[in-house]
Sequence to fold (505 residues):
Amino acid sequence: MINKIFSKIPRKHSKSGGEPSLSSSSSTSSKKSEGGNKRLSSAVDDVITAQFSVLSVGNNAEDRYLRDRNLRGDVNIASASYEALPSFRDVPSSEKQLLFIRKLKMCCVEFNFTDPTKNLKEKEIKRQTLLELVEYLTSASGKFSENVMQEAVKMVSANIFREFTPQPRENKLVDGVDLEEEEPAMDPAWSHLQVVYEFLLRFVASPETDPKIGKRYVDHSFVLKLLGLFDSEDPREREYLKTILHRIYGKFMVHRPFIRKSINNVFYHFVFETEKHNGIAEFLEVLGSIINGFALPLKEEHKLFLVRTLIPLHKPKCLGMYHQQLSYCITQFVEKDCKLADIIIRGLIKYWPVTNSSKEVLFLNELEEVLEATQAPEFQRCMVPLFHQISRSLNSLHFQVAERALFLWNNDHVENLIKQNRKVILPIIFPALEKNARHHWNQAVHSLTLNVRKFFYDLDAELFKACQNKFQVDEAEEDDMRERRETTWKRLEQVAANNEAILVP
Fold:
């Protein structure tokens, strides 16, 4: 179901390409410990004995989690101190859950991946252990105990929650234009992180995870930290986070208001303070599917989200990075409640770009999608300010802006709305059409303008001629005013040249 939802949402394109996927081989080749032929209780007890051990091992299944020291960064572990635990296939079913917990604790140790030469053996053991954990989750039968959930969340938290160190990237963005498309920064620990994310995804999605118990560990603090990871520069990580967040939203219903509020706060910080965030597109993809599921009539809370959060997202210069996803969310609201079209169109006009032509083209694209879902009563409430803005776009010297504005007449629904309200619209845009037909430098814009003029003439020749006459009168008045202004300036220049004083009434 989730794949069907996400397939309808515009995707953020990335050079890395492709969906994140786990290694196709689920089988592991983890080494057994020297005590692997004994009973599990003794084998696991003897496996890790060094001072850096992550297990406090005894014959008791309730061994406490002793990872109190900060192991992040450079972890120098002796070869003998980090050995693989037995495989799940080599222990009886009654002892598999104990082994699962101990493997989870073992995977809480973190290694330094900035130096690829360190702890090679231990890193591979951990990776194979993580793969075994994923495989166990997939085949597990019976509800997970509270202890299992607690240790699973601890292991995930220990691995994925970290501080990002932004990479130095010169001249990345100037006035919203990406001067050079650089490859995204890839996390060197991804070979392990990917399996941890796969584990978390399957853990959340598993029918054996009871949400009533799981919500104690996948709590507000966990969700908040998870949202913070969306600022990762690695697009593969953001893809996993997007899917996991959607699963959490679907499974833990008690967290839904908190998730929406927290995403709102991220957007506010982005729009009104930093204008820097790597995961806005992924947040909007998740919200697109959430909005799609809103019940009707829409709650006031959701309408406020549209007005206070989504519409202001048109303000940042880097709109192009997430515009497809934002446009999808906006049109979902119009399709849910057509009365919101007036609010949305006025919001677009409020944030309409003045000097950024590429951003203006995006606005015109979105405007057409909104108008396509707009009904006549809502269109009539906003058509006057709307077509004043469109007339300015028609006269743009940037040919793509003028051309995109003229393409609105190629949409049958928009054309019908214009036909019904031509007596208001034509007088507003006629001067722009006439100026384009006479003076615009681009031949394509000139041809499209003539087609639109012909459309109005064929539709209502009498109205067209009335607008033409008014334009000619206004043009004559402008010429007369221009001449008077030039005469006044010449007189002032002459007086200044003669050094004469002049009294200005």
